[in-house]
Structures are given as structure tokens and as C-alpha cells.
């Protein structure tokens, strides 16, 4: 938690950064996100979200990774507009059952519970998109990660981007150039990409997402280290080569799976990244810039925390312009208002 305390001392720096990013990332006709958006309409919003997140993370630290992943998948499709939270209906095809999301996204009920609490205190005021963005920040903080300010004022989308999940969201077997291009498409840099990939220091991956890795070039990247060989054997016992165990899981960071730290980058340096797209950051022949960043964040946890915070603010400010004209504040995060 030492780094979290360190970051609370850097709040002023982050506030300035948040404002500069929010203004630079918005289209001219869009109102800026602000840190005091709910100051008069729902002053307890941050307290409510924090208390709910404290409960779910204390009951199971893995919940932190579930909420953080939801936030990533939301922002990479139509911007941070709560579209990932929508259920399928007769007239709307949501994103939950898209190939890149189905079986891989969980934690929706956490956001439901927070929304229910806020609806009882401030009916029709706080958007689901804002709830998810704040909850993701608190999730990281509660498992030892850094603090960052969250500008607010997002509206919820009335549409979803089922097809966009296929093109926008990085997959476990993407090559380095594909990963970079998907981040750049969202206005995020290579540095943002390497820092945000550090979110894999918490959470689990399904066998279907790391099978190709452990039966592919794992030995080539990790060498003949006996410890690596033992770890690989354990992974193969969890994930057999034939289909049938696709949903078996393994920690992305086997060293400190429930703590947000820089262990993930040390794992990449040892060639033990669980999924191909992670190890590509260090082992790809194209990984000139990304390899340097992996080494930097492995050696300097403060630099990682600082960049992760800045990149999360930047990602959280990816907007859906349509919501400023046609958006709403959903009363139920799973359905568009009627």
C-alpha cells in the first residue's frame, strides 16, 4: 500500500493532468468531464461506490480484476459509455455475448448493486458509465494500486457495439503490431499500451486464451529454467492441449495474483507471460520500444504506478460523442430507459 500513499501525495499533479487530458480528448461540441460534476446533485457518489467496492473486494480480491476488465472492455467499444453493461433485448444486441466477451466478462452484478444504492440516494442522476469508471479506480486502489482522479459527467449509451468488440478489443493471440494499432485507434500511445497491460498483474485468464501460448513458444521465451518448467507443467495440467477445458483458469500473475504491483513485468522478463499478447511486449522481434518500457516498469514500480494512473485517466476520457446528444442516465444499467 506504500505506493498508494505516495500517490495520494501526487493528487494535485493528477488533477492538473486529468483536466488537461479531458479537454484535449473531447470533441469541440462535447461538455468537458469535471471532478465535481455531482457536487450538488449527488455529493455522496464517491463514498457509495467506495463502500460497495470495499465490500466486494474484501469478500473476494478477484472482484477487483473483474471490474477493471469491464471498464477496459467498455471504453474500447464506443468509448466509456456503459454499453458493455447492456443485456440483449428484442431490439438491442448487447456486447456481453460477443466472441471477445462471452465467458470472459464477469462482475456485472457488482455494478448493479452500486447503481441500486445510488438510485435510492440520487434517483436518475449518476450514469452507469461514471459508476463503472469510479469503481475501476477503487478496485485498483483496494488491492494496493495507485490512486488517480476520475473526471465525471459521462452519459449512458442507448446503443451497443457487438461488431466493434471483434475489431477494437485486443485478443490473447494478437501480435504486437495488432495490439499497438488497436490502442492507437483509441487515441492511446504505445506507452499507454504497455502501462495499461500491467493491469494483468491481477486477474485470471481462461485456458482458451493461453493454450496456444503454453503449447507454442513458451519454452523458447522462458528457457530451461527448472522453475519455469515446473510452472509450465502446472499450466498444462490446468489446460490440456485438446478442447474441453476452455474455461479452466490460471492467474495472469502467478506470483502476487491478488496484489496490484509490478510483478507482471518481472514475469515478462523471465519469458513466462501467460498469454501471447503479453509476452509479445518483451519477446517480439518488433518489441524495441515496448521492451524498454517493460524493463523500466520492472525496475521502477513508482514509474509504473505513475504511468498507469495517467493512462487510466486518458482511457477513461475516451468519449462517445453520440451520448452527449442522445445519451441518458439509465435507471437500470442492463437496459435502456423506456
From TrEMBL:
Enzyme class: oxidoreductase
Protein's name according to its UniProt entry: Peroxidase
A GO BP annotation: response to oxidative stress
Keywords: Calcium, Disulfide bond, Glycoprotein, Heme, Hydrogen peroxide, Iron, Metal-binding, Oxidoreductase, Peroxidase, Secreted, Signal
Secreted recorded as keyword: yes
Catalytic residues in the record: 73
Species, as recorded: Handroanthus impetiginosus
PROSITE patterns in the record: PEROXIDASE_1, PEROXIDASE_2, PEROXIDASE_4
Positions annotated to bind heme b: 200
Record flagged with keyword Calcium: yes
Pfam families registered for this protein in UniProt: peroxidase (PF00141)
InterPro entries documented for this protein: Haem_peroxidase, Haem_peroxidase_sf, Peroxidase_pln, Peroxidases_AS, Peroxidases_heam-ligand_BS, Secretory_peroxidase
Cofactor needs: heme b; Ca(2+)
Site (Transition state stabilizer): 69
Function: Removal of H(2)O(2), oxidation of toxic reductants, biosynthesis and degradation of lignin, suberization, auxin catabolism, response to environmental stresses such as wounding, pathogen attack and oxidative stress. These functions might be dependent on each isozyme/isoform in each plant tissue.
Catalytic activity: 2 a phenolic donor + H2O2 = 2 a phenolic radical donor + 2 H2O
Disulphide connectivity of cysteines: 42-122, 75-80, 128-333, 207-239
A GO term for molecular function: heme binding
Gene3D superfamilies assigned to the protein according to its UniProt record, in alphabetical order: 1.10.520.10, Peroxidase, domain 2 (1.10.420.10)
Amino acid at each position: 500500500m506504500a505506493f498508494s500513499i505516495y500517490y495520494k501525495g501526487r493528487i494535485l499533479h493528477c488533477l492538473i493532468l486529468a483536466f488537461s487530458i479531458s479537454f484535449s480528448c473531447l470533441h469541440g461540441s462535447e461538455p468537458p468531464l469535471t471532478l465535481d460534476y455531482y457536487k450538488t446533485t449527488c455529493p455522496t457518489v464517491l463514498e457509495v461506490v467506495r463502500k460497495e467496492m470495499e465490500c466486494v473486494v474484501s469478500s473476494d480480491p478477484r472482484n477487483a480484476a473483474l471490474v477493471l476488465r469491464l471498464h477496459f472492455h467498455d471504453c474500447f467499444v464506443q468509448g466509456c459509455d456503459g454499453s458493455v453493461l447492456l443485456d440483449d433485448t428484442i431490439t438491442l444486441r448487447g456486447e456481453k455475448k460477443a466472441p471477445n466477451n462471452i465467458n470472459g466478462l464477469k462482475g456485472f452484478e457488482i455494478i448493479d448493486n452500486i447503481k441500486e444504492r445510488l438510485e435510492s440516494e440520487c434517483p436518475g442522476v449518476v450514469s452507469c458509465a461514471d459508476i463503472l469508471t469510479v469503481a475501476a479506480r477503487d478496485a485498483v486502489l483496494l488491492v494496493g494500486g495507485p490512486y488517480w482522479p476520475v473526471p465525471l459527467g459521462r452519459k449512458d449509451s442507448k446503443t451497443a457495439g457487438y461488431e466493434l468488440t471483434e475489431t477494437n478489443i485486443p485478443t490473447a493471440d494478437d501480435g504486437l503490431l495488432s495490439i499497438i494499432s488497436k490502442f492507437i485507434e483509441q487515441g492511446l500511445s504505445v506507452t499507454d499500451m504497455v502501462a495499461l497491460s500491467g493491469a494483468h498483474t491481477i486477474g485470471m485468464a481462461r485456458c482458451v486464451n493461453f493454450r496456444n501460448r503454453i503449447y507454442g513458444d513458451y519454452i523458447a521465451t522462458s528457457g530451461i529454467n527448472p522453475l519455469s518448467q515446473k510452472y509450465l507443467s502446472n499450466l498444462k495440467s490446468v489446460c490440456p492441449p485438446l478442447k474441453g477445458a476452455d474455461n479452466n483458469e490460471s492467474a495472469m500473475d502467478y506470483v502476487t495474483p491478488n496484489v496490484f504491483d509490478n510483478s507482471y513485468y518481472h514475469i515478462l522478463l523471465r519469458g513466462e507471460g501467460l498469454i501471447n499478447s503479453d509476452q509479445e511486449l518483451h519477446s517480439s522481434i518488433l518489441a524495441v520500444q515496448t521492451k524498454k518500457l517493460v524493463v523500466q516498469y520492472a525496475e521502477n514500480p513508482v514509474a509504473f504506478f505513475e504511468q498507469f494512473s495517467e493512462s487510466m485517466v486518458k482511457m477513461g476520457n475516451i468519449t462517445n460523442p453520440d451520448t452527449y446528444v442522445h445519451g441518458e442516465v439509465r435507471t437500470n444499467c442492463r437496459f435502456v430507459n423506456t
